[in-house]
Automatic annotation (TrEMBL):
<comment type="pathway">
    <text>Amino-acid biosynthesis; L-arginine biosynthesis; N(2)-acetyl-L-ornithine from L-glutamate: step 4/4.</text>
</comment>
<dbReference type="GO" id="GO:0006526">
    <property type="term" value="P:L-arginine biosynthetic process"/>
</dbReference>
<keyword id="KW-0032">Aminotransferase</keyword>
<keyword id="KW-0663">Pyridoxal phosphate</keyword>
<dbReference type="GO" id="GO:0009570">
    <property type="term" value="C:chloroplast stroma"/>
</dbReference>
<dbReference type="InterPro" id="IPR050103">
    <property type="entry name" value="Class-III_PLP-dep_AT"/>
</dbReference>
<dbReference type="InterPro" id="IPR049704">
    <property type="entry name" value="Aminotrans_3_PPA_site"/>
</dbReference>
<keyword id="KW-0808">Transferase</keyword>
<dbReference type="InterPro" id="IPR015424">
    <property type="entry name" value="PyrdxlP-dep_Trfase"/>
</dbReference>
<dbReference type="GO" id="GO:0030170">
    <property type="term" value="F:pyridoxal phosphate binding"/>
</dbReference>
<keyword id="KW-0028">Amino-acid biosynthesis</keyword>
<dbReference type="GO" id="GO:0042742">
    <property type="term" value="P:defense response to bacterium"/>
</dbReference>
<protein>
    <recommendedName>
        <fullName>acetylornithine transaminase</fullName>
        <ecNumber>2.6.1.11</ecNumber>
    </recommendedName>
</protein>
<comment type="similarity">
    <text>Belongs to the class-III pyridoxal-phosphate-dependent aminotransferase family.</text>
</comment>
<dbReference type="InterPro" id="IPR015422">
    <property type="entry name" value="PyrdxlP-dep_Trfase_small"/>
</dbReference>
<dbReference type="Pfam" id="PF00202">
    <property type="entry name" value="Aminotran_3"/>
</dbReference>
<dbReference type="GO" id="GO:0003992">
    <property type="term" value="F:N2-acetyl-L-ornithine:2-oxoglutarate 5-aminotransferase activity"/>
</dbReference>
Length: 384
């Protein structure tokens, strides 16, 4: 690929593609956005990097916006989603140790184990990888970080059996699973997890790296469900429309246990990337923008359902907002290849049996219809 504009990508031969991957759910404002380009140029002439030894106005402003629109009181900036989950792991262990000491126990007796869910994806560095379900990602690098237990997504009774007071320090869950297969959580599940974590004195951590910041039609994915706020939340992918940034949002009770130097990152929260993130956040958080995401997402799902009706290998169309999966009873790699040949970029998810569609959040109705026409043509030809 050599250039892009909006929802279009162009390769070195000049071929144009309709991009329904958006850099794996990153380029929420599309490619070569004028507002983003303007902010990059202006900030590059002012201040690019200081390290996180110092505060900067773009970083402070972004932190205020993130906390003002969420459950959180504090923010720790990093450079990716996997770094955000690594940070959350550290913060959860420090919180558990501090709680144990406050109760007169030895820090060594504090809870330190974690729970995550089948089909979940949380990153590829060692701590985050240990939370990630797919064996193929973990096995080549085993043994990973000890102490994590996997349990079925959506099953509260089994979750209750493995979230244990005095043993579990944190529970990691995606409100909408992305890499694992586009599975939205239901209200009972997330509310139940909140109650179980409260009973066990464990922190509830939402991974919204893929489903957060407007992707579902809500600013935060868990806002599809009321009364299920987390203690921490990891965000990253779309926050700076392609520049590397991540963040851990947390309640004050978690932030309060962290001392200066307990965690850090040389590049985190730099003024250039935070300036861009402010531009992205202001536009994505606009109610009219989010309403359009919901409308286009509903159109995408209904159009796929209609056009793929009668396909013998189709199992389900599901998703939330513009995070949509089409499940077949066979591998979808041939469908991805056929779509690419016709000028539509898509990706897989789950066990390779799901076609994942995550277009830029600025996608138009005409582009949705063009994409679903191509998926229909290719599915009936490539998947028989």
């Amino acid at each position: 690929m050599v250039r892009g504009k909006g929802c279009a990508l162009f390769d070195a031969s000049g071929k144009e593609f309709l991009d329904f991957t958006s850099g794996i759910a990153v380029n929420c404002l599309g490619h070569a956005d004028e507002g983003v380009a303007r902010v990059i140029a202006e900030q590059a002439r002012t201040l690019t990097h200081t390290s996180n030894l110092y505060h900067t106005e773009p970083g402070a402003t972004l932190a205020r916006k993130l906390t003002a629109t969420s459950f959180a009181d504090r923010v720790f900036f990093c450079n990716s989603g996997t770094e955000a989950n690594e940070g959350a792991l550290k913060f959860a262990r420090k919180y558990a140790k501090t709680r144990a000491q406050a109760l007169g126990k030895n820090a060594g007796d504090a809870a330190w184990e974690t729970v995550s869910f089948e089909n979940g994806f949380h990153g590829r560095t060692f701590g985050a990888l240990s939370l990630t379900w797919k064996e193929g990602y973990r096995a080549p690098f085993a043994p990973g970080l000890p102490g994590n237990t996997f349990t079925p997504y959506g099953d509260l009774e089994k979750a209750r059996q493995v979230i244990v007071k005095g043993r579990t320090c944190a529970v990691f869950v995606e409100p909408v699973q992305g890499e694992g297969g586009i599975y939205p959580a239901d209200a009972e599940f997330l509310r139940g997890l909140r109650a179980i974590c409260d009973e066990a004195d464990a922190l509830l951590v939402y991974d919204e790296v893929q489903c957060g910041l407007g992707r579902t039609g809500k600013l935060w994915g868990h806002q599809l469900i009321k009364d299920a706020e987390p203690d921490m939340m990891s965000v990253a992918k779309p926050l700076a429309n392609g520049l590397p940034i991540g963040a851990v949002l947390m309640k004050e009770k978690v932030a309060a246990v962290m001392a200066a130097g307990d965690h850090g990152s040389t590049f985190a929260g730099g003024p250039l990337v935070c300036a861009v993130a402010n531009e992205v956040f202001d536009r994505v958080s606009d109610p009219a923008f989010l309403a359009n995401v919901t409308e286009r997402g509903n159109e995408l799902k209904s159009s796929l359902t209609e056009k793929l009706a009668g396909h013998p290998r189709l199992r389900e169309v599901r998703g939330a907002g513009l995070l949509v999966g089409v499940q077949f009873d066979c591998p979808t790699a041939p469908l991805v290849a056929a779509c690419r040949a016709r000028g539509l970029l898509t990706i897989t998810a789950g066990k390779g049996d799901i076609l994942r569609l995550v277009p830029p959040l600025i996608v138009s109705s005409a582009q949705v219809q063009k994409a679903t026409d191509i998926v229909k043509e290719c599915a009936f030809e490539a998947l028989r």
